[in-house]
TrEMBL record:
InterPro entries, sorted: Leu-rich_rpt, LRMDA, LRR_dom_sf
PROSITE patterns per the UniProt record, alphabetical: LRR
Pfam families: LRR_9
Domain of life: Eukaryota
Name of the featured protein: Leucine-rich melanocyte differentiation-associated protein
Record bears the keyword Protein transport: no
Species this chain originates from: Gasterosteus aculeatus aculeatus (three-spined stickleback)
Gene3D superfamilies (alphabetical): Ribonuclease Inhibitor
UniProt-annotated stretches for the region Disordered: 170-211
Length: 211
């Protein structure tokens, strides 16, 4: 146990398990800290799911930037969670995720999705413009109308009115998969993963990433 705890940075009710290439949430983390942790930072790991998070029943802030979380991401019900950052993961289609968050995180007011394909920000998608990003914001705010802060920007009253009126029609189109030309006879080879610029977060006391 002492060896495991040496991997954890503890500051009061703030727990950090960062940069250990973990593929799942270690069982000892929930057993040891789950009952009192208010803030959990699991950034810079290799997480593909958040199984084990149900042990953190009092969680208010969750930071899981720079992982491998995809469209099948599921969270347990976290009634006190107000801050969630999922910057630089593998999210390409967020509609199901947003509906899931509306159900399991009723107190959520801050969400950041920068650095994912589903977030058409110019930092990571040079072919996208501000209009693309604004449509994405309208769609997210339509699904999660309680948000006060999305990515790096505060939600304005004008945005919220527009989201209520037209947000349902602003769904972000899932990026097309890269494919070889039809005349290519060999089997398609997976494209190498290119790290995206770091996402940003400037709320609370998180030492966020700035692209």
């Amino acid at each position: 146990m002492a060896r495991n705890e040496s991997l954890v940075a503890l500051n009061g009710t703030q727990i950090s398990y960062i940069g250990h290439d973990g593929t799942d949430i270690p069982e000892f983390l929930g057993d040891t800290y789950g009952h009192f942790a208010r803030r959990l930072d699991l950034s810079f790991n290799l997480l593909r799911s958040l199984a084990g998070l149900e042990m953190f029943t009092a969680l208010e802030e969750l930071i899981v930037d720079n992982n491998l979380l995809g469209n099948d991401l599921l969270l347990p019900r976290l009634p006190n969670l107000h801050t969630l950052t999922l910057n630089k993961n593998k999210l390409t289609d967020i509609e199901d995720l947003l509906e899931h968050l509306a159900d399991v995180t009723p107190s959520l007011v801050y969400l950041s999705l920068l650095g994912n394909e589903a977030c058409p920000n110019q930092l990571v998608s040079p072919d996208k413009d501000e209009d693309d990003y604004q449509r994405y914001r309208y769609f997210v705010l339509h699904k999660l109308p309680q948000l006060k802060f999305l990515d790096t920007r505060k939600v304005t009253q004008k945005e919220m009115m527009e989201a209520q009126a037209r947000g349902a029609f602003m769904k972000v189109v899932k990026p097309k998969s890269e494919a070889p030309p039809k005349e290519t006879r060999s089997e398609s080879q997976p494209l190498p993963y290119t790290p995206l610029p770091r996402g940003s977060r400037d709320a609370k006391n998180h030492k966020g990433n700035r692209g």
